[in-house]
Structure formats: C-alpha cells, structure tokens
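Progress note, sequence design subtask.
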C-alpha cells in the first residue's frame, strides 16, 4: 500500500485537490482511502446525538449503522495514525492523508501563499499554480490531478503499513 500525506497551510486547497485526485486514481484501477487530521477539540460525534450519549455513558465503542453507511466512534487514547492506517485501511492500494505534516509519511505540499513548508519539513513535491522556490530535490508539480497521480505512481514507495494491526 502507498501512503502519501498532502500538507499545506489552511486554505491552500488540499481538500479540493484530493477530491479531484481520488477519481483519477480510481479510474486507474486503485482502491483509495483517505484520513483527515483534525484538532483534538473537533468532536466527530455531535453532542446531543444518541451515539454521543452512549459514549458519554461509558461505551468503549459505538457503531452508527444504516443500510448504506457506518461509522465507529471511540476514544483511542493517543494511538498513532500508522496504527489506524494499517488496521482499517491496510487492504487498500493508496491511502491519502490530509494533514499529518509531523508524521513519517511521504509528503506533498499544496502551496498557495505564505512561506512554503518545503525546507522546514521534508516534502517530495510542491503543488502550486505558479512558480515557487523549492529546495533542491523537491519536485514542483502543477495542480493537475493526472500529473499528481503520475507522481504518486512513480515516486511514492509501497510502505510497510499493510503489516500494521
């Protein structure tokens, strides 16, 4: 499985780029999963809902289920994202992370304005609609999902993530 993190400043276009990239990768035959990093203050299970009330009452895990969708809520106590990628997404071909700039994964920066992260954190490429100065060895890519998919296929290594969990 290939895992790649898209990093960048807030409002740089990470989500839009990822949403354009997913169908391109799927059309090439890949099974794709994603994980989004959020602040610990973000509560994914809305207070006041039955599932939130179940958790507040002490349930270790709460499964929200319908005939079409499911979501599992739990407090994981600080396990790393690699544990979850391996355990829950390990059967996929490509996992795209949004955020996780401090993680060990290969990173592609989505750049729009401000000071680039490239040079301060290790990135393999910078996606930008205009020229930007990047450190030696860092590729500059256009915000074109086809070009980014080509880069992922050629440059992102298959990692040991499948063996986790």
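Output:
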């Amino acid at each position: 499985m290939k895992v790649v993190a898209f990093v960048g400043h807030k409002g740089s276009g990470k989500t839009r780029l990822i949403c354009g990239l997913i169908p391109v990768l799927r059309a090439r035959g890949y099974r794709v999963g994603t994980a989004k990093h959020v602040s610990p203050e973000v509560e994914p299970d809305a207070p006041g809902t039955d599932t939130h009330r179940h958790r507040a009452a002490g349930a270790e895990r709460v499964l929200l289920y319908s005939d079409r969708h499911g979501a599992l809520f739990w407090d994981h106590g600080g396990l790393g994202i690699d544990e979850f990628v391996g355990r829950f997404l390990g059967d996929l071909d490509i996992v795209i992370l949004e955020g996780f700039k401090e993680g060990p994964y290969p990173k592609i920066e989505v750049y729009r304005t401000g000071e680039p992260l490239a040079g301060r954190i290790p990135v393999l490429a910078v996606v930008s609609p205009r020229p930007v100065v990047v450190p030696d060895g860092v590729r500059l890519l256009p915000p074109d999902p086809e070009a980014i998919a080509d880069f992922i296929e050629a440059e992102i290594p298959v990692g040991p993530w499948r063996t986790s969990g």
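The mean pLDDT is 90. Work on this subtask will continue into the next period as scheduled.
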